[in-house]
Predict the structure.
Amino acid sequence: MEKRSGAELDVLIEEATVDTYDEVEAVNGFLAIIDEHLDVPFTTTVLGVEVNVSEIRLTNDSRVVARCVRNGLRQDIGLAELPLPQPPPAGAHWVDAYRRWSGCR
C-alpha cells in the first residue's frame, strides 16, 4: 500500500470530520469511518509480541483504541500509538488520517 501525502490525508480528515462541531464529535466521526473501512481483525506486533487486533473502539474518555488480544488476555492501545503490520490492513489510510488529525490538536 502506498503512503498518502499530507494533502491526501487532509482530504480524508475533512471527510471524517465534516458536520462535526467539537472534538468529541470529530472523534466519533473518525471511529465511524474507521469502523466502516479498516479491515479488522488483523495481526500486528506490539513490543515484540504478536497480537490480534479484534476491534477498534471508543473509551469512556473519548479515546480511539485498538483492542489487542493474545492468549485470552486483552489490552487496549491508543490507535495513534498502535504499530501497524506490513503490509497494513485494507483501510489503514484512515488510521494515518486519524494520526495526523490527533497530532494536530
